[in-house]
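Two proteins follow. First one:
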Amino acid sequence: MRYRYGKHGIPLLLVSSLTVLTLTVATAYGGSGEAAGSAKRLYESRCVLCHGPRGDGKGKIGIVDRDSGSGRIWMIFPRDFTVGVFKFRTTPTGCLPTDGDLKRIIRDGVLRSGMPSHRDLSEGEVTDLVEYIKGLSPRWQEEEPCGAVIRAKRPDWVGSPESITRGKEIYKEMKCWECHGYEGRGDGPKSDRLKDDWGKPIWPFDFTTARLKRGTSPENVYLTFTTGLDGTGMPSYEDSLNEEERWHLVSYTLKLMGKVK
């Protein structure tokens, strides 16, 4: 099987083979055994209903979300593990997530989505489930991990009037309003034309709802501006804005969310 990689590292099949699409947990564990069987049972009991038996996101359940502010309704599609592209990471854009990133999502779930928390699982079970998920995509076998992890250490001035003012300027300069709207309501001029890397329609976030899927802490907002949300229209600003500018942008979005005065 040979691959050509497209946007954000999504593999495009050049030679189709059902074998690759049915990668088993044995790939992740380096063989079969009790641990592999346990991980497979965990996946089948906790994940398969939404993510599907192959991990391609084609399970029996799709999630409908409604924006309370605009009344818009859209489908939320379960993550396709076979392409190895994840939105919520502490690694740079285009990189695979760390094991810690995957564990955090499994334990905490994702707000405003069908992804629940699994805090009842033991540390060993979460680790097994992570290894199983990694075995569903060839990216973990074909690519070296990026290694870099984004650290979010909040400056004391975040949320100050001066920082909010500068953040508003950056919001305009970076044309965030084109998608998120001038008042951050997700109603910008491009908001109804956005699609993810799979061609499915997506809506930019309405900051006034203050319900970010990643979480609404300043650190989580900063991570989103730094890592981007791979597979979506939300880019990384790691190269285009310096660290201080990204934190100013955090200040302004906190203002839009009503978290600061």
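Second one, unrelated to the first:
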Amino acid sequence: MSRNIDVHGLTYQPSTAGNPILSDVSYSFSEGHMTALLGPNGSGKTTLLRHFLAQIKCPEGAVLIDGKDVMAYAPKERSRTIAWVPQNSSGDSAFTVEDVVLMARYPYKSTWEGDTPEDLSVAQEAMQTVGVLDLRKRNFASLSGGERQRTLIARALAQTTPWILLDEPTSNLDIKHQMGILDLLKKRVDEGAASVIVVMHDFNMVERFCDRAILLNGGKVVARGEIGEVLVPEIMRDVYEVEFEVVKKGEKRLFFPVREIPKE
């Protein structure tokens, strides 16, 4: 069975005042891809992902996950399908890093079932993969922003879902860990372990690690498709109001913001 997240004419306006946050958004996120979700601040990126998680109620048929209406999923079933890494996180000092990562195994348990040897093994492997295994007994609340972010990514990996959604997962990471996290996500996609949708602002990272993108502006889809069809200087100029210089580097391109374009 082919896995897709299909969006059909999704419009979201939380109140009658103001413009819609999302307006007639349509796109098919296909399995086997690392898709970048792009757009200026306030363009509707996080709101779109929240619809996939049923954190915002969708109109019937507006979002289908693997052919099934998102609102028809039971909570545990949805959690076995999609893992979520939010942009910001707060922590309770009662939970250790290991506790947080093991929360990912909840969708696979009965109500009072404890952690199994398999759960512990999956969690340990995920912590090892992102480099937080040595922090496993630390209180989550005591961690730096970057350590928390890597812990949440470990939790998403331990959830072993076919879809992983991430909202600016590298915003709190240094350049070494940015590269490492994006590389491991790309490998998960290349190995067929998961499909990834990631909100990003760094076009050079998008060019390097993603193969598809969708660009939002003012809640509307401006461009979609292969990276070369979306990261087009003229389109980026109109959306971000910044002039970009593009330099070819081997098979990839480098994007340099040159100047801000004054509003007319």
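SUMMARY FIELD: The chain has a mean pLDDT of 93. Residues 89 and 148 are 7 Å apart (CA to CA).
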